Amino acid sequence: MIRSILIVPDSLKGSCSAQQAANAIAEGLWQASHELILKKMPLADGGEGTMEAIRSICGGEYKTTAVCDPLRRKHTARYLQLPDKKTAVIEVAETCGLTLLSQEERDPMRATTSGLGEQLSAAYRDGNRHFIVGLGGSATCDAGAGMIEAIGGNGFGELLNCTYTILCDVNNPLYGKDGAACVFAPQKGANTEEVKLLDDYLRTFARLHGEKHAFTPGAGAAGGLGYAFLTFFHAHLYSGIDYLLHLSDFDRRAKEADLIVTAEGRSDKQTLSGKVPFGVLQHAKQYSVPVVVMAGEVRDKEDLSAAGFADVLCINTSDTDKRLIMQETYAYKQLKNCARGLSVEKYITRKGT
Asked: Which of 187, 209, 241 is where one domain is finished?
């Protein structure tokens, strides 16, 4: 029986783009069986790959700007200008992302969002008046202070009159035990003492500029950039994955699928807070389509299974060298091998089966 499989991966950060992941999974499935209709739909959730996902749907042209990176070094960053020539799609990861730093350079006590402010200003000068900003993958925890400083007085006034669609991949508040510092600063390089200092900084920042949005879901995204856009630019925050799923007409495609395969770099409890696989799962549930997730690393498998995933598959063994996992060719091969071994019929529980 011919089966239709929808392949909807996120990128595997640092090793494999969403498009590459989709290609690898499709190749593995096709090697296993030619009686499959394979449809690829690489996505993003506001993090790495958001520009490419929107470009594949809407078109547009990449522009480059000279900005500073998280440590104020000169750096060339891209943004996507949509065909209307008035809308810019920006990824925070392009200007102040973790992938711009080596492991040894990660330091949220020093990292700044200044480059984002420079990029917003440059995009404004290019004629853009609406900004779609993806907040995933930042190396910072400055609540947007660097961004505001870089924009400056007159520029701030101009940008204040623009409109903003902010895409978040998390729902965390600005500060507190579930806030930007306590949850995300450790993976950005902060030690225990620095996490406390950063959390205190974010509390103080909110007292100075207003507590109104400090606990709005997503305020803690990108080290507090969610709060900054809400407070200073009166922006609207959206779930990045829900925005992309709507834009790509995902629900129509999901209805036609017998199985959905998604993927990400690491699957754990954070997956259930707005990441691509969980967004895909939530929408697929409406149509009783099973969803299998593949990941380079898997934690909290019981929680993920309880959430409703048909299966949670780790493409690597626990003793695999971390440096090897991050290599593009290796990640591609592992995704392909995992897909080739997928027992498709085991998961399909609807449409006459």
From this structure: 241
Contacts 24+ apart (CB under 8 A), 102-107: 105/71, 105/189, 106/139, 106/188, 106/189, 107/71, 107/188, 107/189, 107/190
Q: Examine the domain organization and report whether 193 and 140 are in the same domain.
A: yes
pLDDT tens digit string along 161-215?
999 999 998 899 999 999 999 999 999 999 999 999 999 999 999 999 999 999 9
> Given this model, what pLDDT does residue 31 score?
96
Residue 259 sits in a domain whose CATH number is 3.40.50.10350
Give residue 109's domain range. 50-241
> Of 196, 225, 241, which one is at a domain's C-terminal end?
241
Residues contacting 188, CB < 8 A, separation 6+: 98, 106, 107, 108, 111, 138, 139, 140, 141, 223
pTM for this model (two decimals) = 0.89
